[in-house]
Every structure is written in structure tokens, then in C-alpha cells.
């Protein structure tokens, strides 16, 4: 069987436990993605998974480039002859599923990990992009056997816009899960209080709201730290490197760049903050919960399911700087709050987001 994603490192970072379980169940597994390096290939080989490069632009819609991608995916699937294809993220779901139908892959499944900026936004250009994206989804998903959704809001959106074939089986899963052994419960660090946001540097992640909340809090509590962790992006809502640097120069936030292992940064923070406008299920919050960190996130699709408001963290309306600031200040007013909520967050992660439980649901739905 083949597992297809748009970002090669995600095969190891996010799908390794699932693919390991597939191999353990006796299946031959190959990971498909663009631009995997030798380190990734070696990592996958260590769990019995092969790798195949397929060219694919992760963002944007370039007709010629995307046509070349479809042809390359089709050629790879025709050569590999997988019995099962599981695609995740937008372009693999659309183009991978469509190419699989062209070459007769017997069982094709898709995992919707979020709506993405192509389906959201205002203005004529964004609406045209959304119209085209919906058409592509209908075309790509026309013959899929099953679709996994990481939250009910995304499923409702797909159903309302008639993006799914009537015959496909829908399965709700609790995100991609989190490896509780890899992200163990970790003691809270000493002061200063540190808030961490992990995500791509795009507006949809709530970066601007986080920075403004940090600016307001620092004016009253200058010792408090605010960390940004994540790479720059190329989509239309990307925040420029110059803007991030301006915030750093102002002294509002510290930008940590990108890292191969997020755990040390989580260990240095007391609270995870993700003021996102919408997700599938935010993995950054799950990893923080597993390590015993409280979270402040939004009442947006995908985010609101990850936090029990008032017990494991706080939920605030998207794009609401005042509510976000107030929620974050509660951890300053009550120094023991982050620890208490962090313990509850770990228990919630164990109960709902254990990666083994999530993968068992996926494999059962796929008949594996």
C-alpha cells in the first residue's frame, strides 16, 4: 500500500506510527512525497517503509506544474501497483486520488487534515480560488472508497458543498494522534512564564493576534516571554521574514526558526498558544498536551475539540485579541494554573488522542 503526502518530512514526523502499525500487520508500505532526503529515506527504512519521490508543489495552483504532477503521480502508481492508497493534505488528496482512479488502484482513501487557505477567505480572487478548489475536490474524490475527517466541521463543509461521492464511507478520527511515549509528561519549567506558538508563519495561524496580545501583556509584565516556532510559508497569507524580524527587533517576541525536535521548546514553555482560524486537528496542541502543557486556542473548527475550556486550557473566539490577551493573563494572575491545567491536559491526551487508538480506527476503516 502507499501513503501519499505533500511534505516529505511529515511521513516520518506525523505518519510513522501509522505506517509502522501497517507493516506490523503484514503490509508492504511505501511513502510517496516530493523531495525526501537521505535522512528521511533511512528513517522510513528503519521501520520497514520504502520511499518514492513524486514531484508536487505544496502550495499554489499552477496548471502546467499541476498537470506534470498528475502525470508523475499516475506513472508512479502505475509502476508500483499498490492495492491501497491513503492520501493526506490537499494536493495529494485531489491529485493522488484522481491519478489512482486513472490507473485502477483498487482501494483509495483520503484524509482531510484541514480546509486550507484555498477554501477560505474573502475577496474576488480568493472566491475564485475556492470555486476552483471545490471543483478539483469533486473531481479528485469522485471514486474514493473512504474519507477520514479530523473534525466534524470539516465534514459538514464537504457535505454542504457536495464535495464527496455518495458511495464513500466517512470516518471521524481524533486528528493524527500523538505518540505519548515520544512526548512524555514533562515538569513545568521555572519562571519566567513563557508562551509558545508553533505553526507556519501565516495569518491563519493567528500570528498577528498572538503578537498583539504579547505586546499588550509585555507592557504590564515585561519579564513574560513569547516564542514563535515554525517556518516561513509561500501561500498568499504568509507573513514575511521582514515582518517577523521587525517584531523581534521591537522586543515583543522571540523567533526560534524551525527545529527537527520540538520537545525542548515545549519543555521550556508553560503554555501553548494557537489562535488559529481553523485546523483539521492541530498537532502542535496535541504534542503540548501530551507533555503536560495547558493550551489557549480558538473556538474555530478543529481547535475547539482539543481543549476542555477551563480545565485543560482556554478557548477564545478567533481574531479576538482582547479575549486572547485576557485568557493568557489568567496564567500570570494564577501562577499554579499552568501546572494544574497541564496535568489535566496530559490525561485528556491519553484518553482521546493516543496515536495507537487513532491508528486502530484508521486501519479498521481501511480493512487493514
Shape: globular
Strand order of the largest sheet: 3-2-1-4-5-6-7
Strand content: 15-25%
SSE order, one letter for each helix or strand: EHHEHEHEHEHEHEEHEHEHEHEEHHH
DSSP, total strands:
13
**Number of H/I helices:** 14
* Helical content band: 40-55%
Model regions low in confidence, pLDDT < 50 over at least 5 residues: none
Radius of gyration: 20 Å
Q: Main sheet, how many strands, which sense, barrel? A: 7 strands, parallel
The SS-based structural class is: alpha/beta
State mean pLDDT (0 to 100 scale): 94
Q: Between the first and last Cα atoms, what is the distance in angstroms?
A: 10 Å
Description:
The chain has a seven-stranded parallel sheet with strand order 3-2-1-4-5-6-7, sandwiched between helices. It has a six-stranded parallel sheet with strand order 10-9-8-11-12-13, sandwiched between helices. It is 43% helix and 15% strand. The mean pLDDT is 94. The N and C termini lie close together (10 Å). The chain has helices at residues 8-13, 16-24, 38-46, 63-80, 90-103, 124-140, 152-160, 207-220, 241-250, 263-268, 283-290, 321-333, 337-352, 355-365; strands at 2-4, 29-33, 49-53, 84-88, 107-112, 146-149, 169-172, 194-198, 225-229, 254-255, 271-274, 294-298, 313-316.
Amino acid at each position: 500500500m502507499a501513503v501519499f503526502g505533500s511534505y516529505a518530512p511529515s511521513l516520518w514526523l506525523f505518519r510513522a506510527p501509522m505506517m509502522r502499525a501497517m507493516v506490523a500487520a503484514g503490509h508492504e508500505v511505501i511513502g510517496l512525497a516530493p523531495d525526501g532526503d537521505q535522512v528521511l529515506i533511512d528513517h522510513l527504512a528503519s521501520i520497514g517503509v520504502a520511499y518514492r519521490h513524486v514531484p508536487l508543489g505544496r502550495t499554489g495552483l499552477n496548471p502546467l506544474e499541476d498537470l506534470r504532477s498528475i502525470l508523475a503521480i499516475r506513472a508512479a502508481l502505475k509502476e508500483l501497483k499498490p492495492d491501497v492508497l491513503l492520501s493526506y493534505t490537499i494536493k495529494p488528496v485531489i491529485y493522488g486520488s484522481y491519478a489512482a482512479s486513472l490507473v485502477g488502484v483498487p482501494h483509495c482513501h483520503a484524509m482531510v487534515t484541514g480546509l486550507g487557505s484555498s477554501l477560505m477567505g474573502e475577496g474576488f480572487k480568493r472566491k475564485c480560488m475556492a470555486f476552483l478548489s471545490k471543483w478539483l475536490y469533486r473531481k479528485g474524490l469522485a471514486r474514493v472508497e473512504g474519507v477520514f475527517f479530523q473534525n466534524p466541521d470539516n465534514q459538514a463543509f464537504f457535505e454542504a458543498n457536495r464535495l464527496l461521492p455518495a458511495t464513500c464511507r466517512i470516518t471521524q478520527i481524533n486528528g493524527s494522534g500523538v505518540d505519548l511515549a515520544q512526548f512524555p509528561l514533562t515538569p513545568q519549567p521555572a519562571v519566567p512564564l513563557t508562551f509558545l506558538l508553533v505553526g507556519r508563519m501565516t495569518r491563519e495561524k493567528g500570528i498577528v493576534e498572538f503578537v498583539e496580545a504579547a505586546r499588550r501583556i509585555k507592557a504590564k509584565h515585561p519579564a513574560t516571554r513569547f516564542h514563535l516556532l515554525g517556518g516561513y510559508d509561500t501561500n498568499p497569507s504568509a507573513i514575511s521574514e521582514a515582518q517577523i524580524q521587525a517584531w523581534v527587533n521591537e522586543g515583543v517576541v522571540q523567533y526560534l526558526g524551525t527545529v527537527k525536535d520540538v520537545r525542548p521548546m515545549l519543555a521550556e514553555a508553560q503554555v501553548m498558544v494557537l489562535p488559529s482560524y481553523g485546523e483539521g486537528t492541530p498537532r502542535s496542541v496535541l504534542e503540548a498536551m501530551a507533555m503536560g502543557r495547558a493550551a489557549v486556542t480558538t473556538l474555530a473548527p478543529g481547535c475547539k475539540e482539543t481543549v476542555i475550556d477551563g480545565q485543560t486550557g482556554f478557548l477564545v473566539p478567533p481574531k479576538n485579541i482582547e479575549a486572547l490577551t485576557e485568557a493568557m493573563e489568567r496564567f500570570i494572575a494564577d501562577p499554579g494554573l499552568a501546572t494544574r491545567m497541564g496535568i489535566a491536559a496530559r490525561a485528556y491526551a491519553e484518553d482521546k488522542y493516543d496515536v495507537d487508538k487513532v491508528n486502530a480506527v484508521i486501519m479498521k476503516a481501511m480493512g487493514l
